[in-house]
Amino acid sequence: MLSFGFGFFHQPLVQGLKQSFWFQIDEEVAKLLALKAKISDEPSTPQKFTLKTPKGTRDYTPQQMMLRQGVLDKIIAIFKKHGGESIDTPVFELKEVLTGKYGEDSKLIYDLKDQGGEILSLRYDLTVPLARYLAMNKISSLKRYHIAKVYRRDNPAMTRGRYREFYQCDFDIAGTYDPMLPDAECVKIVSEILDALDIGDYVIKLNHRQILDGMFEACGVPVDKFRSICSAVDKLDKSPWAEVRKEMIEEKGLDEKAADAIGEYVRQNGNSELVEKLLNDENLKKVPAAVKGLEGMKLLLNYCNLFGLSNKISFDLSLARGLDYYTGVIYECVLKAEPKTSKGAQNGEESGTIGSVAGGGRYDNLVGMFDSKKKQVPCVGVSIGVERIFSVLEAKFVTEGVKTRTNDIEVYVASAHKGLHEKRLRILNDLWANGIKAEHSYKLNPKLLAQLQHCEENQIPLAIVFGDSELEKGIVKLREVSTRKEEDVAVDQLADEIKKRLRN
Predict the structure, then answer these.
(1) What is the largest CA-CA distance in the chain?
(2) The three-state (H, E, C) secondary structure of 219-287, written as one string
(3) DSSP β-bridge partners for residue 480
(4) What is the DSSP letter of 168?
(5) What is the 3 state secondary structure string of 397-465?
(6) What is the pLDDT of residues 385-417, one digit of tens each?
(7) Mean pLDDT of 149-166
């Protein structure tokens, strides 16, 4: 107002107001400058951090990483044996890509803060991103594997291998093929992986979504409650039937008679004989979906028997898998005698068993959700629960006192006395040039005993030891660390001799 109205005031008054206005500004500026100078002169207070990983996440030690890499290498080898090709997708997706694909579990999706552009979420699994990838690139046939981290805002139980950030190892077969041939191979892949990892006896539970839907229809479940009742049945591996029944009636609004009818079915498991029994069930054989699902299960069990899996599989009517995108066969692998994964609770968690170690199924309609022309690409796949497998193996190694090597060094180059560090470097350079994994001490004049102790503590198989007397003869001593046996080897034959011993 003052800048536009000075002409209406008496001139001396205007001048006084102007001076007062600018004086106040100068005074405030002076205060800010003084405060800035004071802050600059004061020693900065160190910021206090809460040193912890976020809830549901963990760090991995070198020992744990070596174990992890060994597990993943075995899994990848089996994926490749079955013709798998590897792909990768972004760790986050458009939120609309993930929404509506996971049923009640959709609430576990991590949404990212809007950065003024696209609305994004962290991927919940590797299956929906695969479907988006197939639709976006117009791919109608692919046999792929994908190993990557996924994120779920779940209640973590880290001692049982359940995290908010964790790896999934997926193998999927996309394409139009004859019934149950790719499905049976996925079951075989699960069996081969668990056999290779040697984590104990297991059973692969099999079921079919059409059998479940047919069963619900036969029991009088309204169609609009199929998915919510399926999610309730999915909890039978963790909760007794009484609790699941209560949830169906009180939370899902299901009729008691229908719930009791479901209970008669979901407590059954077996093999081909159970399939035949259900095919003759008076209620189920009136429902086309149930009959079709049972015929498919009969074929799957036959193929699995041909793969030598008859003693490792079970047709289990309680298996539901709550994800909305499954349309056909579903399976889940659990350990028969689940090991305890810790001796005691950590971070307020109870020790306990780990649950399923693999799961999957058929999802024929998911790709079509992303295609502009709704073109369907039938898919079936399996996901290996590697985090839970890691928990089992870590506990097993601790119990058995197994010491895991944390690197792959094959040879250690050790000098016997001072002044030989340059010669060590020349020998190292020759070993590396020959593809031999080797290291030495980063001290100029390390003590020989300390070098040899390093070899034993780190389980390095071979050590090269030399001093001036050896070098004058053009030889070094090649030491077998475990037995401490030493032999003279010519320097110019050293690389060949080491390779020969490593092969043996």
Answers:
(1) 110
(2) CCCCHHHHHHHHHHHHHHHCCCHHHHHHHHHHHCCCCHHHHHHHHHHHCCEECHHHHHHHHCCCCHHHC
(3) 462, 485
(4) E
(5) HHHHCCCCCCCCCCEEEEECCCCCHHHHHHHHHHHHHCCCCEEECCCCCCCHHHHHHHHHHCCCCEEEE
(6) 898 898 888 888 888 888 888 999 999 999 999
(7) 82
